[in-house]
Records
---
Amino acid sequence: MLARALCYALQGIDGCPVTVETDIAPGGFSFAMVGLPDAAVRESRDRVFSALRNSGYACPESHVTINLAPGDLKKEGAAFDLPIALSMISASRQAALPDLLKTLTLGELGLDGTLVPVRGVLSMVIAAREQGVDSVILPAGNAAEVQAVEGMYVYPAYTLKEVVDHLSGKALLVAQCQRSYSECLTERTEAFDLSQVRGQQGARRALEIAAAGGHNMLMIGVPGSGKTMLARCLPGILPDMTVEEAFEVTRIHSIAGMIAPGQGLITNRPFRTPHHSASLPSLVGGGMDARPGEISLAHNGVLFLDELPEYPRSVLESLRQPLEDGFVTVSRARAHTRYQCRTMLVAGMNPCPCGYYGSRTRQCHCSDHEIRKYLDRVSGPMLDRIDLQLEVDAVPVSEIQTSAPSECSAAVRARVQAAREMQRGRLKDREMFANAQMDNKAIEEFCALDSAGQKMLETAVDRMHLSMRGYQRVLKVARTIADLAGEEQIRLPHIAEAIQYRTADNKYWGR
Amino acid sequence: MKETGISEKALSPEEIRAAMSESGMWTVSIGDDAYPELLRHITDPPGTLYVRGALPSGKCVSIVGSRRDTRYGRQQAFAIAKELARNGVTVISGMARGIDTAAHEGALAGGGKTVAVLGCGADVCYPPENRVLMENILYAGGAVISEYPPGSQPLAYHFPLRNRIISGLSQALLLIEARLKSGTNSTVNYALEQGREVFALPGNVDAPGSELPLKLLKEGAAMCTCAEDILEGLGWKTSDDEPDDAGEQLSFTESDDPVLRALALEEKTFEELAEETGMPPGDLSAALTLLEIEDIIEKRAGRAYALKRK
């Protein structure tokens, strides 16, 4: 007899429907699974058989054919275990499961019949919801992840038997309460707060500007000057994520299998710190099944590259285009996926190979040549994508002990949010949302200077050897500084401050 | 003609002539009147000099030091060379990375002449990043000199020999930074052998670059802390020639500008300035940019700011 069950497969970031068809026909025992299953799907046969037996069901002893339709779509992962088991039970008439095609079922099975969480659940559930499916049965560990999806009855289950009892009407599962996004947001707590940063007034200010305009940022400083700590505070001063943003982030993390069982919607902006030994696929995405890379995991958040010159040049260059576009296309033989990666790049680096060039406490023992070689590992085009450059100085221990606690992230965030709103109003016709995205045309239109500012900037270009590229960056940053001050007109002090975040470029790279 | 003058890929006479005319090079041999008088009398003078530009005459001081320099060394080399140049002294060095480069640049900044003695052909730029510097040296009326014919490559054994010309061309030698075992040491030995006055700039006792200068100072070399020490030591200028203008830098202690007041005595980092002036970081950044553009202050490594030395 034939039975069908509804499941969803991952196709990149999206879910697409898959019908699990099981046919049990008379004859000696045989088992065939068709429909481009990968190894994990093919192995489900052994898990399912054991799970059936250990849950008190009989295993089919005749001709079993399982088809995963559509047949030309590659199926991955262990999420098909549950629908396969259910369709077998139904096909072998051990229970009547009438709603099997109307209810989305997914989950991996343990040999004892327990349900094990799988990855990519949020994408599958969202896709199912869009296609009119209104109930889903999934492993309890995956339930929290989908609690903010509207209009879906979510039934968390622990064992195969519970699911069968529910579908056959014997004993119903309890649907999970839906939670609104604003409720989820109240849980937002950041591990790092700016109030923990002592001193560093200059860096704090730069961080605020970077957050307000969405500008990429480079911090140059001696080891222990607090570059990493400052960067970690950045997500906390960025505005709260919108519902859409939170869903985007959670989906990417879910597909990468990075949501812990029981973890709900991600409401904190991601902060990713790949090590400089990370491979190119792990950064931009790839692998056999074209999984998202670090740059996509940092979507809507912060990608922190510490020790920037230590990254292989090929890796840095491959980050350039995605950073510009806000998405990355990962192509593999069998998969072709587009992931979003609208992220703020924050990079940290030492001023020289030994790290102490310009330090007051330790002598740098690098030669000019060594320093030049080290700095040259960061290419001009890469630097060009970084609006703010900042030198960070170590804070003396005495100051750490004596200085008063500084302003907390929430206060800074309020100012950042206000500045972002100004930008959104100005840029919404151009489908941009932050100053960092402005192209030449937008700069021309929105970054007009008064005569005093214009004159000063011209002098600066001359005196401080600002490049033409640097000139545009200064204008963008000045726009953000004016936004933070709540002013529509960029005035001289705004320009003057913006120039400070450009001079490191010149000093170190002479460009 | 010495064997050392021939590089691995020796050019034919025609090629040499072509290379010389292309780079505006001329030769002077030891019998010529134009041959530098000081150099003629060292124990092992080069028979022929290949010269681009004009040979130095009059007051000459060579400044030498390590290629593994520090900011301190570089700054001092620059400042002293600049001051010497202002007093009409030609600064001679080897155009190597580090101290040499700073010395040449200082002399150019002081509006004076400077001479680079190379260990390769005078038409070869080594190190290559000093191409612009080489052009500037010639443009400012200085010279690039070598005892090796055009096209000679910078071979390791050329450099110790070239050092005898650096010291040989000058009346005095100033050592900035060097380790005990270094090429600079050979220059110093040549200078002593040739009877040149040797000055050394003191450095921190724990810095590797202070090894040689401090050793020389212990052995009786003249201490140099500013260009005046050399000028006076050689009798080119007496201490009461003109009053120095040390007052200029102190004048900011009474300034109305809180930033300048804070910087009046020493360099400060951004954080220290923010603390001292009590200005919000944004305003402080803006103020610093304006002062920088007006050329009153300069930015140094590690986000430190200092008054610009006039």
---
Amino acid sequence: MTLKVLAIDDSKTIREMLRHTLSQGGFEVHVADDGVDGLEKLECVGPDVVITDINMPRLDGFGVIEKIRSQKVYSALPILVLTTESAQDLKERAKNSGATGWVVKPFDDEKLIHAIKRITVG
Amino acid sequence: MSSSAEIRHTFFQECDDLLEALDDGLCEIDEGVSDQSFDPETVNAVFRAVHSIKGGAAAFGLDELVQFAHQFETVLDSMRSGNLIANEEVLKLCHRAADYLNDLVVAGRDDVDPPKGSSQDLVEKLSGLLPGKLEAKKEENSGAIGDFNFAPAAISIMDDVPGAVSVVSTYVVKFRPHKTLVSSGNDPLLLFRELSELGELKVSADFGGIESLESLEVDECRITWSLEVDTNLSELEIREVFEFVDGMCDLEISKSGPAALGNEQETNLNQLEVDANPRSDAKISSGNDSVGRGKSGSSGGGANATVRVNLELVDRLINMVGELVINQAVLTQCIDDAGVLDNGELSTSLAEFKNLARDIQESVMAIRAQSVKPLFQRMARIVREASELSGKEALFETEGETTEVDKTIIERLVDPLTHMIRNAVDHGLEAPDLRRSAGKLETGKVKLSAAHRSGRVIIEVSDDGSGINREKVFNIAVEKGLIPADSSLKDSEIDNLLFLPGFSTAEKVSNLSGRGVGMDVVRSAIQKLGGRVNIFSKPGAGTTMSISLPLTLAVLDGMVVDVAGQTMVVPITAIVETLRPDPEDIHKLGSENTVVSVRNKLVPVVDLGVVFGHRSSAVSLSEMVLLLVESDDAMSWALAVDQIFDQRQVVIKGLESNYGYVPGVAAATILGDGNIALIIDPEETARRSDKPSESMSILAMEGK
């Protein structure tokens, strides 16, 4: 079964890269431009895994995760945080918001796909 | 599917937008820095811009860009968190950092070495803003697992662990998930699956935590596990499997031997053996051996519906619209010649056709129109650089940034504006000590403004410096043989001497404005755009240079007139009104000059036929039509023409590339009958006819 990924990032470059890498990796890729857009698309896409940036306008990654987790139906949806942040406190914060895991940019293709595979059943 | 080259292209395109946003944000912060009244969200946006550039750059291995962006971002981050107070000094540094970031992006895009220059100094100053903080951050990084380092090169931790290779040991892992583990989307089974990839795995579960079936919650895990894995890898790598659930479980890892196995629970363990051979399907597929295509998801899906269009396409469209306008004129002429214009239906359709052609033309123009903001932002940098190099403090102000102008015009304004801005700082402003003794603030002001005025775009560069030293300018002009020593010139004429080729007032050639081009180059660049440039100066108070440009380079609304048997076009935007003068309103001034009284104001009359040499002397004005035109600086003239034919859209065909610059003539156009008519520049024409005969030598020298 093809896994559906919803990738939320305000950088077009990163969105394009995610789309490219993940399509090559056999995922069905959907992208969103920021947190608000991401939450809107969540409903119609029904992803198997969400990848989200942290620093975004309108609604940041923490907000996205908290909003997703607040819905019972998504309580176990795997969410990867994609960020250049190396600081420990940001990871802690993401975790406290309910993130499943993280990938640090710049990701290489393998690392990213590996991170997704380790948190998805597919 | 996007190739990496395309993504790279996207990245640099995005960088342009981000750099603009960065500049915007910094300027916005500038405005509120004195009382800290800027919006914290602006600081956030600025941070995000730099952050996004860093993120993308890292993916393309642009190390220098990444490192600098990181440094810059750290400063912005502490500004964001309130650890660093944004003051003018800090902001100034941020502007410089933004400039340098821009340089690095350009260098990355063009694949050249980034400019060296002041970068080291800049980096030091940036880190100087954060005492001790950067060091701390570095330490934190090196202590973390390689994964968390933002730098592209992954650090191999394995090298530091002695005896990590080839010896197979048994590790016992005690794993007790907390409630949060499942609710964060993690799944113990997936962890075991990953663990099983490290080596032979035995799993035993303890269900002792489950009191009763009824008390179970779906998102709560009450099972504890004991895992045994045989692997030649290190404990660190086992820990890495549990990386995501760190803090969400109790985890004990010990090497080998049942002695190390937990104590009290052992007796309670309901043994459960799980076949956990490494599963082949869990192998990671690399980027290239694609498993399935995966339908490409919702395409693009940007919030703002814009498309990027190749400029060539737009230009082609513009050309075609031009042809359409000519064609429409030809068609009208044909129908008129055939004498069927009275046909109601035909003339309605024709009128409709005209309206549509105009709508199309306006829409296409709107595509090309861009705000001058990016141009102005570039100039902010020029001011910063110029003020640094010249040692003069300069405050840069802009006005009317949202004014929209044709893209081509904006592009071609970069060089002349750069030169004018440099001039304003370098020659216009005085040195700080001179300013102080003149009772001015030490920091000079350079202002750049844009506005739409009577169908043209007016761009002004002004400074509050000492103004033009007219005596000096006059003497230099005489010295260089540009004007006769006995010339008597009006102030404004002296000021305009600056635009003569070969004129340079700088006593020492500075490395700023004295770059081998003079103001004459500025003027000819502006003229090529169908524009004019004027200079106004007040001794002691400053100088203003004003550029007046057409809105577009393609089409204009013109009044088609007859001048001594020649058809000419006067841009409608310049015409305030048309009138047939009463003979008693016409007054002679001396033998040559005539004025007309318009509502108690005397306006000089300019006979276009005489100016362009189509007739030698003025004919009776009462037979003629006067077009009242006004200049940008509120001067008025009455242009005398024999007859008004029509008012219509005409296509602008530049004369300069095909023929050369003719004073007073803006361009040419093709009429409906296929003939060519000149489009005049009313102000230029009027000013020229205005000049007293002794300054005609300047005129003669200006025509190249």
---
Amino acid sequence: MRRAATVVAACALSLVACGDDDGGDTGSGAAGSTLTVFAASSLTDAFGELEQTYEADNPGVDVQFTFDSSSTLAEQVVQGAPVDVLATADENTMQTVVDEGLTAGAPIAFAQNSLILVTPPDDPGGIQDVADLDARDVDFAVCAPDAPCGAATQMLFGIVGVTADPVTEEENVRDVLAKVTQGEVDAGLVYVSDAQAAGDDVVAIEIGQADQALNSDVIAALSEADDPEAARAWVDLITSAEAEQVLTDLGFLRAP
Amino acid sequence: MSTSDRPARRPTAAATGRLPWQLLLPSFLAVALLALPVVGLLVRAPWSTLAQQVRDPEVLQALRLSLLTASTSTVVCLVLGTPLAWLLARSTLPGRRALRTLVTVPLVLPPVVGGVALLTVFGRTGIVGGWVYEASGYRLPFTTAGVVVAQTFVAMPFLVLAVEGALRSADPRFDDVAATFGASRWQTFSRVTLPLALPGILSGAILAWARALGEFGATITFNGSFPGTTRTMPSAVYNALNTDFDAAILLSLILLVVSVAILALLRERWLIGAVS
């Protein structure tokens, strides 16, 4: 949580810095232009960190993020939202945008994410293992089945044999995490990277078969991008070795 | 809405000339802004799948939940809000003005903020909710009762303000007369004040019901979304938006048609009867 706050603060600071830049420094290309990036909420911290690298390499370009459920974002792109780059937490969701012919070039997988069980630090439900979701009468949150994290959760529950109903199906993985950190539920299924981002605000419990329900994070520049070069540059950064380091440090797995 | 037998004033000759364009043009724009989105829903609706969608158990479940919770919230608003409106309109309670401001806060609060605020009080770790959970293991969020609480929170101001307005415009001398005949304050309220304010109470109740039916932000923030317990129609629309825009349109239309039909029915049966 503290980490997220730092990232937000950093973003806010960099926005101010960009605003100041607009007047004087007109280094390369489109000065004062904005790159709009829609990304799965699980990518909040990773993209926030990489924003600084990008804005240092591309002076005058201000990166604006919207983080939400991949399926929400993909639907907004299909409905004509003015977006330059889309990053989704699974391939199926990206495919809906590809099918509409809205991507510039084939989407590139740049990371994978596996699921993990998290509980509040005091573990009010007494949960030691994913099987406790069934065995004990606990309140837990998952992603809605339409969201990539929800699809992976359903698959994983099928594998490990959990049949209990959650108390809520949230639209994106960060909402699941928030319900856990707020202490409103006893447990939630989130990505490893989300658990890591939450730090001491949650206790993470690994799930043995989680590697059988991985989601691939994919990114694509969109054909309607205002500045295709700036969009390309963001895709190049996210698929670079530097980004891979940032992503793996945050708990993501390498792309297959 | 007038309760007196005075006939409504007819426009005089001077007021019936040509309509001024300064009034016509903005009115036309207002109607366009209000009506076009509804037309958009009608035009874009995938009518061919309507019959199938209406029979979808999940849709029916969400619709039933929406009608149940909105109606329950309205009853709660009536039971708690009508006395409050009376206090605001008729009593000499000190601090009434501050109280009225407090009542209107949910009107200006973004519903999502309302949901967060409800969590801080009634959540499992909230000020009241935490204590209740410790003592009994009961939690309000993620339950149908939680949906009712969120809807009541956003709908109550509509009822209170409408009823207060009705009480203010009703002639308080009727109350005085009742009192001179020896009626207690409670008798005066229940036998005289309340019947006189009935049209206002009914329209307030309908406003509150409509607001509760459309409630989304506070509900999803406070209760999350799960089919059958907390996924009301607006939440179902939001859920459908992620995957199927057409389904979202149909769900919206179903909610629209059902609510308009119910309102029209109530108007026919209650409001007209109550006024005349």
---
Amino acid sequence: MKNKKILCCLMALVTAFTVLSGCGMGNPSQKTVEMVAKGFQHDFWKAVKKGADQAGKDLGVNINFVGPEGEGAIAAQVEMINNAINKKPAAICIAALDTTASLDAVNKAKANNIPVIGFDSGVPGAPEGTIFANASTDNYKAGELAAQKMYETISQKLTTGSSRIGVVSQEANSQSISMRTQGFLDKMEKLIESTGRSVAIIGHTKFSNGKTQGDVIIDVAIPPEINDTQGQTSAQTLLNKDDLIAIYGSNEFAAKAIINADAAISGGRIGNDKVVAVGFDSGALQIDAIRNRKFLGSVTQDPISIGYRAVELAVKAMNGEEAEDVDTGSQWYTADNIDSDAIKPLLYQ
Amino acid sequence: MNDIIENIKTKGMQKFIALGALIVLYVAFSVFGNNFFTVDTLVSIFDASYYIGFLAIGVTFVIITGGIDLSIGTVMMCSAIVGGTLYNNMGVPLWLSLFVIILVGGIFGLLNGIMVSRLKLPPFIATLGTMMVASGIGSIVSNVQSTTFPMRSAADGWYKNIFRTADNFPTGIFVLILFTLLAVILLNKTVIGRYTYAIGSNKEAARLSGVNVQRWETVVYVISGLFAGLAGIAYAATYTTILPGAGQGFELQAIAGVVVGGTSLSGGVGSIIGTFIGVFIMSILKIGLPYVNLQPHYQTLITGIVVIGAVLLDIYRTKKEKSIKSKS
């Protein structure tokens, strides 16, 4: 009796696997490019996948696009990279959550003569020669762009008295997010110091410039855990400081945190004539905030182009051609150009 | 008068300690925190307490029976995703979607209940499995895409008022208190509550004295699931977009709140009011620590120490209580 039950269960499982494995098979005559993304949670990755699939169609390769459940799942992603290598694909594209954790896998790919292409943040700091090329946003430049645009609006307020600029950064480990935060901080510091005012960057130790006092204080908040409650708390701590004149969120999560925190404050603190808010990427909440002029504007990457260019590089690699890193670019958008042909395709809900 | 003191000494000590700790924490953050003592911050503390509060109240029932429910975090997210997908992609009216959210939570609870009571799976394993199942189903249903609930400005934005009005009035605290009272009545005045304690104190004795242990154990998991569904609505109302694959970790935050509130993980002992207080202690820590300019890693560290301290205090108190009882 009991054995029969177990047998039934096993058979059900086998059937399930057969059915499931039937899905996701590409054209067997084409070469396959394995792509390991950082996850599917954020709409950003859907746009990347869209670009990759389009390139796969255009260039005649199968794309197998995978990613871990969440952006904290470093170990799960390393397993995915290893699995992808074990399938011996023609090329593999990686957006590493954590460089050091992925290095073994990257070396293994090299040992197996599988070319590795970095996309989005890629595999920064990987040893020379292991990465064929990268298709990514220059995140440092993108951060500078955000600082430049914010500075143009708040420069008047910065000339007298003491004031504070808040920065919400999802984390300090990921290269892409750190660079956007760093690019913003460096540029803002330079712009303000060029007017003879002093700047102190406080908050998280990683970004501190060693000063604690200054005419302008840039306050970097990083939530202890990556979830909505902690993000909102970090943003709200900044918004509750009376001398705050502007705030920057360096990715979709951080921008959402600012929007949610502001909604929880009576009357709201952010707006173009109040605390100037600048975001990064898009997403339904952020687009809404920009349309309602709660946000001055945001910097968007070009996720479709990231996916497309990565596959393009992969095809070059498998054909033995040479290639260089591609900057897939970033754009500034506001309520005024949000619906323009140049911006609209780059945004996702 | 002596009776009251006696009562506090034997039964309510933990609750009073917890309540005292809650007040001390709030006052301390108000004194040392930069701008902590404001209505807005208080509303944020409430915001962070709604979904964890519902999760914690539901799981308190399970923990009193000596079980555990690890699935509540992902069940909360999964049910919210199901509701959001119905609303966004299938044109189901919002009120019905919200109802489905609670229903989905209840179904997961039923699944847990059947596995634990009928199939005799250890609760830890059964609900660990459900945790993953719920996470997977959430990703499948949403096609691994985030689900956005209507924003306040949208036509269907009314549901946000259940937890916070447009002028920032925290209506949610009344909703939470209402369900807390409901749970208190359920646990202390009804047959469900009596059997919950009975199963937790001694399952075998409960069975021998004629309690239908299988049925009531199932009911307890269903309650936990339904509350996880409620938490899903609270989460959607507060944070608007729901990410698939998220939710893991919230169950442990809820369980921490339960334990800080004096409910024993070995079963038979516990109270809803204690849980309510425990949840707020955790929320005040979560919201308050950034206001005293602590680096994030220190915040996690301190929260951990508080949980351990609370449990130690509880163990110490029960020991003392027992020694007093055995002397008299």
